[in-house]
Automatic annotation (TrEMBL), chain A:
Residues 236-307 form the ChlI/MoxR AAA lid domain. This is MoxR family ATPase. It comes from Lentibacillus salicampi. Coiled coil: none annotated. Belongs to the MoxR family. Residues 42-172 form the ATPase AAA-3 domain. GO terms for molecular function: ATP binding; ATP hydrolysis activity.
């Protein structure tokens, strides 16, 4: 349900074109990943294996000329395996830091719920602080830094589901889902000889990306749109089906994402439309339903949708005097 | 997407339509000259029945048509149906009536043709109501029309819609509730099957309607603020002042025939004449002396005496009675037609600029104005009269049996004995005629009789008019009271007769000083009847038994009388005599009464103008209301061009939203402007809404104001407004 009047920002449009060459029928997901990237947030992907998570991240990295790293989370993975480790160099007679996979621009954290909370928190700290602490030393992470973490919703055995406080760190949560039969046919045709990822090249470099991230911050958001965000978030806190509502971090995330979304569409101001469209992706994973609601068959998505329906869009400006 | 209503509910709703339609037909029967209403009703039932069956048009059309022909045949055709002659006759009728129609000779139309038209109307309405109520579920317009129709008929015709308005209220509110429910369910896509299982919705609906009906029925209601215009319209149309046709409801006024008294009437404030007089006094026209048990007649064919001079002396009191000479002028209203002379007590002379003579029947106090043996209506005349005053002590001397003319103590054999017994009882303590008369005169006020003009019964075949009033209804108007008093007096062998005329009317112009003449207006509502008692040796003295009226006869006592009678001392106090205690209790009755209702005269003059004024204002308001969007659009457009600021644009934009909302394109609160604009542009095939919305979005969400663009867009705004309004 993307906006139909898609007049994209030129730079962004090139990136999206690139992704769409590789990821057939995933325009919306590509765009949402970009929203998170431009808002300097991180994405949580909840999906079954083999639907193209890795391909999406790799295409993104290649288009933006970024370093791509991948961490496959396993139960025996240690924090040092993520952040890097200091090794004693007998020749130099000192400890030498070997950076871990987190030291990339775009990191795919695969099946994040398979590893121990300790290791999870090492990644999450990096996501939040933009640096990691190894042996008492604080090492800054590369910029831009973007994590796309995946979670397998099917297998629960031997997993460590992320606590809600941690989920909050991801600016948005989305699903890739299966392609339609027609799209799958296109995909098969496209990959029968060479993988289309081989054919694409970078359309933006890292510095440009950093500059764009700064520009996104300058997107104007009016007080009445901010009020709309607050009303939505307050709605989650007052809803009887919700046990835990959205935190203030959630409202900030919604605002940042809305700015990025507006930027992608070539606007320098945020519309309530942006907020309304993004709200389910940004709010749904931040709420906890109470038990009755779950038994009633409600889901976080349906509850957020209901809240959006019940929140009035601001359509009148208060003029002073 | 329209959902199918379950049959039961369709049937219910359509029954409501049917009942409402019947409310249209009832009055037709009463006010029109439609005789075979039952047939039309049956045809209505038939048409509605066919419609509700929901059969295809090729079946329902011939069925209804055949029904129509059947009725026409049974009502008008003598020859066998569908025979050759039958068709010929029908063909002739149609040809004749079509010619009459073309020639606009409406009165030529035959009953057959008019019936056909009426039946066709019923047919069409059965179809229309089916469409309104069932297909569109839009019932409000028809309901409003029904209410207007009934109210208008009730106001301007003799049709009494007391019951009809309650029936209509109940039925229409049930229909409204149901149709609203259907529309709501349709909108929310609620399935009817859910409702079917739980018809709980019926309980609150019926409860609320019944409750409000009961409250409305029981609650106190304002009396009509205007006098009933029906008699006014009728007399304006007919130019007459006679009594109605005796169909139950009559109109007060001076009438000739009093042989059947009783029944309700409506007040008619059409002026009859204006009079300039020194004091209030009754205007006498004639008396009647034979009581039949149902009403009054004259004893014998009146013997007329031709009087050609100005002198017209009605000897009613003996020469010993004190009199005072006065003069009064009578100005007849152009429209009123009184052939009988209206005169005050003690009349001695009648002068007029017009040439006239009098044919007087002194026995009955009646004088007709004639010119060359033809009746004539005088426009204006002056009467000179010797107003009598009676000494109470002299009146009191009359007691015991006296030899008087038999006709003044005549009573019908059929008069129940209890009337006489009651008279005896009332006058038990009185030793003379005067006191007896006074006791009977004040009896009604003491015993809780009420003055009313509605729901006054007409005596049945075996009933006596007076007996019914005294023992049964105990409510009525002047005829009841005066007749009862005369009859009771006669049962005590006191000679009395029944006098008719007018009360003094309303003062419309006060004289500057007490010596000046006041001007009175006398209307049909002032027509009155009272009692005259013959005191041998003194003469005829009038009494006023009617509730709410005062005896205007001047009684006085000599100074050496007992203290008890002191109140009667001054002539001014006399009119209130015998009524004083009752006055406060009778205020309500008096308010309804012609002599004491001060406002009604003026209102009666003005209500026609008020009505026209209200209608014109209503039409104007309605036009302005209907064109309000145009006015506002023009105003806002000019303001936009002048101000060019964000705030004005916001007003204009929101006005656009309000208009769209009014046109049924409602913006949901959670809908963004962009989403809404897309819907609007799609609906009207425009692009303006998108342009305007984009501009407004920048004002609203970007805090930007481009005045140049505002001016450019104001034209788009106006165009879009016009397109939506069209």
């Amino acid at each position: 349900m993307m906006q139909e009047t898609a007049i994209f920002n030129e730079k962004i449009e090139r990136v999206l074109e690139n992704i769409n060459k590789v990821m057939i029928g995933k325009e919306e997901e590509a765009m949402l990943s970009l929203v998170a990237l431009l808002a300097q947030g991180h994405v949580l992907l909840e999906d079954v294996p083999g639907v193209g998570k890795t391909m999406l991240v790799r295409t993104l990295a290649k288009s933006l000329d970024c370093d791509f790293r991948r961490i496959q989370f396993t139960p025996d993975l240690l924090p040092a395996d993520v952040t890097g480790v200091s090794i004693y160099n007998p020749k130099e007679l000192e400890f030498e830091f070997r950076s871990g996979p987190i030291q990339g621009n775009i990191v795919l954290a695969d099946e994040i719920n398979r590893t121990s909370p300790k290791t999870q928190s090492a990644l999450l700290e990096g996501m939040e602080e933009k640096n990691v602490t190894v042996d008492g030393r604080t090492i800054p992470l590369k910029q831009p830094f973007f994590v796309m973490a995946t979670q397998n919703p099917i297998e629960y055995e031997g997993t460590y589901p992320l606590p809600e406080a941690q989920l909050d760190r991801f600016i948005l949560k989305m699903k890739l889902g299966y392609p339609s039969p027609g799209q799958e046919m296109q995909m098969l045709e496209a990959t029968s000889k060479t993988h289309p990822i081989e054919a694409i090249s970078a359309v933006m470099d890292r510095d440009e990306l950093l500059a764009v991230q700064e520009e996104v911050k300058d997107v104007y958001i009016d007080r009445n749109v901010q009020q709309y965000i607050i009303n939505l978030v307050t709605g989650t806190r007052e809803n009887s089906a919700i046990y835990l509502g959205v935190s203030s971090r959630g409202s900030i995330a919604l605002m940042k994402a809305a700015k990025a979304y507006a930027y992608i569409y070539g606007r320098d101001y945020v519309l309530p439309d942006d907020v309304k469209y993004l709200a389910p992706f940004i709010l749904a994973h931040r709420i906890i339903l109470n038990t009755e609601a779950k038994y009633d068959g409600l889901t976080s998505d349906s509850v957020v949708e209901k809240i959006v329906q019940n929140t009035h869009v601001p359509i009148r400006k208060e003029f002073n005097s | 997407m329209k959902m199918k209503m379950p049959y039961l509910y369709t049937l219910l709703l359509y029954s409501c339509a049917f009942i409402l339609f019947l409310e249209w037909l009832y009055p037709v029967q009463q006010i029109g000259d439609v005789t075979n209403m039952t047939v039309f009703m049956l045809y209505t039932v038939f048409c509605f029945f066919i419609s509700i069956l929901g059969v295809k048009w090729w079946l329902s059309m011939p069925l209804k048509g055949f029904g129509l022909l059947l009725i026409i045949d049974s009502l008008f055709m003598a020859v066998p149906m569908l025979s050759r002659r039958w068709f010929e006759q029908l063909w002739l009728e149609v040809g004749f009536n079509l010619n009459a129609l073309v020639a606009q000779q409406w009165y030529e139309l035959t009953p057959l043709f008019r019936s056909v038209l009426f039946l066709l109307l019923i047919w069409m309405l059965s179809y229309l109501l089916h469409y309104w109520f069932i297909v569109r579920t839009r019932v409000l317009v028809f309901i409003l029309l029904t209410f207007v129709y009934i109210s208008l008929l009730d106001t301007f015709t003799v049709y009494e819609a007391d019951g009809a308005i309650i029936r209509t209220f109940v039925v229409s509110f049930v229909a409204l509730g149901m149709s609203n429910l259907f529309k709501e369910m349709d909108r929310e896509s609620v399935r009817f099957s859910l409702v079917k299982k739980a018809p709980v919705w019926v309980i609150p609906l019926v409860g609320v309607v019944l409750f409000s009906t009961l409250v409305g029925y029981a609650a106190p209601k304002f009396d009509p603020q205007w006098p009933d215009p029906v008699p006014f319209i009728q007399s304006a149309a007919k130019n007459t002042g006679g009594l109605g046709n005796g169909s139950g409801i009559q109109k007060v006024g001076y009438g000739e025939d009093d042989s059947q008294l009783g029944g309700s009437f409506v007040q008619d404030y059409t002026p009859v004449f204006e009079a300039a007089a020194k004091d209030e006094h009754y205007w006498r026209v004639e008396t009647k002396d034979v009581y039949t048990g149902k009403g009054w007649e004259k004893s014998a064919e009146p013997e007329y005496e031709l009087i050609s001079g100005e002198r017209f002396y009605m000897q009613m009191v003996s020469s010993e009675v004190e009199t005072e000479e006065f003069e009064a002028t009578v100005d007849f209203n152009e429209d009123s037609a009184m052939e009988k002379l209206v005169y005050p007590y003690g009349v001695s002379q009648v002068e007029s600029e017009q040439d006239f003579a009098l044919r007087a029947d002194f026995d009955h106090g009646e004088a007709r104005t004639i010119r060359d043996t033809e009746p004539v209506n005088l426009d204006q005349y002056t009467v000179t009269y010797d107003s009598p005053s009676f000494a109470i002590d002299e009146l009191r001397e009359v007691k015991g049996a006296q030899a008087v003319e038999e006709r003044y103590t005549q009573l019908p054999d059929s008069l129940p004995e209890r009337v006489g017994e009651l008279a005896e009882e009332i006058t038990e303590a009185d030793g003379n005629w005067y006191d007896k008369a006074r006791s009977i005169e004040s009896y009604f006020g003491r015993s809780g009789f009420t003055y009313q003009i509605n729901n006054v019964p007409v005596p049945g075949e075996d009933q006596d008019y007076v007996d019914q009033f005294l023992f049964d209804s105990q409510a009525g108007y002047c005829d009841n009271y005066s007749t009862s008093m005369v009859v009771m007096l006669r049962s005590l062998d006191i000679p009395a007769r029944w006098a008719k005329g007018f009360t003094s009317g309303e003062v419309i112009e006060n004289g500057d000083t007490t010596d000046d003449y006041d001007r009175y207006e006398v209307t049909n509502a002032n027509a009155h009847s009272w009692v005259e008692v013959l005191f041998p040796g003194i003469g005829w003295v009038s009494f006023e038994p009617t509730q709410g009226f005062s005896n205007l006869t001047d009684f006085y006592t000599n100074m050496d009388e007992t203290e008890q009678d002191d109140t009667l001392d001054s002539p001014e106090a006399a009119p209130a005599q015998g009524q004083q205690e009752e006055v406060s209790e009778e205020e309500d009755a008096a308010a309804a009464d012609a002599t004491s209702d001060n406002d009604s005269g003026n209102i009666e003059m003005n209500w026609w103008y008020v009505l026209i004024g209200t209608a014109v204002t209503a039409v104007l308001v309605w036009i302005i209301y209907r064109t309000r969007f145009r006015w506002r659009t023009a105003y806002l457009f000019r303001k936009l061009q002048k101000r060019k600021d964000a705030r004005t644009f916001q007003d204009a934009f929101h006005y656009l939203l309000a208009l769209l909302n009014h046109k049924g394109l409602v913006k949901d609160p959670d809908q963004t402007l962009r989403e809404y604009a897309k819907r609007v542009d799609f609906r009207y095939g425009t692009t303006e809404m998108h342009q305007l919305t984009s501009h407004y979005e920048r004002i609203l969400y970007k805090n930007e104001m481009n005045n140049q663009e505002t001016v450019q867009l104001s034209q788009s705004w106006k165009n879009l407004m016009k397109q939506i309004m069209a």
